[in-house]
Amino acid sequence: MERILVSPHLAKRIRYLPEIMNMNAIYTVIIVCISLCTAYGQNAISIRGKIEGHYEKSIALYTYNNYLEKKPAFLAQVTTDAEGHFASQIKLSTAQPVMLSYGNPFPMIVWVEKDDSIFINIRKPYKLTYPNGRALFDKGDVLYSGRGATINNYLFDADLTIYNPKTHETAQSRSIERYHVFLDSMQQAREKLRQTVWPQNFSPEAEAFLFGEIIAGTFNHKSQAEVYKTNKTAEDSTVLTTPALRQYQLDWKLSSDLALTSDAYRQSLISFCNQMAREKIKKRPASNSEREIYFSYMYREAYNRLQHIAQTREFGTAFTLHLMAMFIDGQDSLAALTNDFHQKFPTSTYYPILAKKLQPRKNIPDIIAFDTTNNLVDLATLKGKPIYIDVWASWCGPCMKELPNSKKVAAKFKGRIHMVYLNIDDNETAWRKVMKNQKLEGVNLRGDEATSRKIKDDFNIRAIPRYILIDKNGNVFRSNAERPTAIEPDILTLLK
Question: Of 39, 284, 331, 452, whose CB count within 10 A is highest?
Answer without folding.
Answer: 452
